[in-house]
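G., before I forget:
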Amino acid sequence: MGALSNLYDPDEILWTGCPCGLHATIYEHKAAVEGVDARGRFYAAETTTGGARTGAAPGPMDALSDLEPPARASRDLDWKDQENVLANLATSAVMKGLFGTDMNRRNFLRAVGGTTAAAAIASILPIDKAIANIVEATGPLEKTALNVGFVPITCATPIIMAAPMGFYEKYGLDVSVIKTAGWAVSRDKSLSGEYDAAHMLTPMPLAITSGAGSAATPWTMPAVENINGQAITLAMKHLDKQDPSKWKGFTFGVPFEYSMHNFLLRYYVAEAGLDPDQDIQIRVVPPPEMVANLSAGNLDGYLSPDPFNQRAVYDGVGFIYKLTKEIWPGHPCCAFAASQKFIDETPNTFLALFKSILEATAFSSDPANRADISEAISPKNYLNQPTTVVQQVLTGRFADGLGNVRNEPDRIDFDPFPYHSFAVWILTQMKRWGYLEGDVAYSDLAEQVYLATDATAVMKDMGMSPPTSTYASYEIMGKTFDPMAPEAYVDSFAIKR
Amino acid sequence: MSDEMKERIKAIAASVAFLGLFLLAWNVFVTAQNGPAADMDPELAALLGPQAKGQSALPTPGEVGAEIWSHVTNPFYDAGPNDKGIGIQLAYSIARVLTGFGLAALIAIPLGFLIGMSRLAERALNPYIQLLKPVSPLAWMPLALYTIKDSEISSIFVIFICSIWPMLLNTIFGVASVRRDYLNVARTLEVTPLRTAFRVILPAAAPTILTGMRISIGIAWLVIVAAEMLVGGTGIGYFVWNEWNNLSITGVISAIFFIGLVGMVLDLILGQAARLVAYAE
């Protein structure tokens, strides 16, 4: 993307897309050069079963990390240096216009030298003016002081770290990220307008829009925050019950009714032949209280967001039985959500916020940045957790509570693309368990709430590579989900309401 | 030395001895729970917390003391919207309590006065007051959040609604039970009704009214902690929740200490005010 790079360095690869200019995307370029699979990560997830996400296949966000390997000293600028970053972006845009491809730029710089090139380009093109134009092109921000709510869990990593690491500032926003006790309060504060945007669970904007659990209000979900990153934790006393068929009579905690946690837990136990409403009890428990309830014996286990799975291990009260990526590899979890009203009334502010979130998500996705991020979000002002706990979650090298140290680099990942098919799957589960009644307009609702089309446009504009289709099919515990036939999918389950 | 002084010194000595015994018992209880450090792979040990390695979940009195001291020495730091010093958090809570309590007093005392002066009004309104009085103030919270749509005003409203009843009831009772003799004397002297209210009834009912206010402020301080734990953001209740979120028992205990301290001070202030208006019959 070039925002932080030295543009006059001939060895620097700047632009996403094909560096030699012969291929349409960097994937095709890579495929030609290195012979790797050119399809993105979700295409791989679609067709493979179980946990296999072909390691070599680059995803839409991987392009960024390829282009900015942190090991190389390419960080000539600091993220927080907003003016220079913008200037660099503008210069990058000008140079792209001049040279077309990265290969041409690098050849030119090699031939004449960086300093000469800088002077030459400045003499023919008033880069200062171009910079001013880019700043103005984003339009005046309707307001810059924003309140963004978050629940203190690692799923919210991009929303949180964008504050201490300067991503909001970079887009001219002064964002206060406000810690919230739980999702019901987060929803109510969002509905009342106290929060301009908020961290929510991916099913929540669908529930709010369709009026399940609150007054129906049009809500939108511009971006997913994280994929994977949850786990089923069991109390230490259930070491011998590592098989869901032995869970009859268990009490499980989930963070919210309209959550992937609830739907994944229900899905998982139902696949094992248990009826989640009769054979086990599912209770809504705020994440911070899960560990205490587990140690007090009020809960036998929970499917909850991290860091509270890792925290149970850290405090020696539970063990990590299953990561949710082992149930559905690449499932969405939390989201960045805003009201339709916020978008309509302050479109420029929204766009700036959206872009800063997309960039923060891309930055979080790079495994090389995870240790730094853990440091940035652990203090009291954000997650308020021991750094080792957060670090184990984000880096995927963790103690599982059974005496092992496991290494799962994709334990949690960050990918903003809000596939419409994610929404359709969630709606099928809401229908399956009776949260929605009657006919459900699956794809209409999905397309109204999940802003995949807008995300595609903005991501392209930012030089990222969004997937080409907003619908994908998934394979979850050996069962195929076809987003085009949601009603048949609901009917295909033996256990449902 | 007078006997009175001796009694006082004995009481103080007993207080200190109780505290010492309590702290000692606490310390013994916690250290007895600490098992021997388990033999563990150092790589794994680095990933686990002290509790998983056999330490007690409860802090020792010394750890809590150190935590309290760190708050006392640096009460007003501001490290962002979610991390402020305990002084700032207490100030937020006290401001909310005083606002809600003040509004309640402004309404409850005049209203109680009017109701107390009329037997009919007292009898007519009593059932409603009795019905609303025992409702847990937090039960109002969802209703307040939904209708007011502002968490700040909602928590003040909850303080208001919980502190209004004791003041209202005590004012009614105090006004209604002013001795007939006083009123009869005022009537024989042809004092105007307004003058009677301010010069006779108010001073006579003041001790009862202040008792109501004292009960109210105690309830208000109890409720603010719960309300702030619920809506979050700022205040001592949020502070407790934030420590709980980190499962930091040390932090929670030190917050309890500060909550108790402020509650005591608020009660002392109203206790002093009650002394000013007290009279002997």
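Chain B touches chain A at residues 41, 43-44, 46-49, 51-53, 57, 79-83, 145-146, 149-151, 229-233, 241-242, 244-247 (CB under 8 Å). The two ends of chain B are 33 Å apart (CA to CA).

More on Monday.
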